[in-house]
Amino acid sequence: MALALTSALALVIMRASLLSISGNQWTIMQTLTDAYLSRESALSNRLPFADLTSAESTWPELADDPLPEQTVTLGRVAGGHAVHGTLKRFRTSEVASNAEAPLTVWRLHSILSYRIGSQEYMKSRSTLRLQ
Q1: What's the predicted TM-score (pTM) here?
Q2: How many CB atoms are closer than 10 A to CB 125?
């Protein structure tokens, strides 16, 4: 009887610890993806306009063609396992309706998709650039 009670208590404690770890893993993944997209926002803000509008730009013009994808490493979790995601970048031209001061306006989009278990998630950031 005591062995059965001890075994049941051990299973309950093990289940509770696994539930607390799974919540931690979700928080870690959100932190990794948010940090990576903050890096993308910083890169889009400091990119010179000459590089932005060139044919080899890292943010190509949005067209009917499929967007180029690149596999990126978001970071590492406990145990040294790398976490990967897929990044898509593109730019769109925004309309500037000010006739007095002609502006070139671009919106740079970064879309990150990643997988946690069997679920796929997406996050995006956009930056408005004026010239």
Answers
A1: 0.76
A2: 17
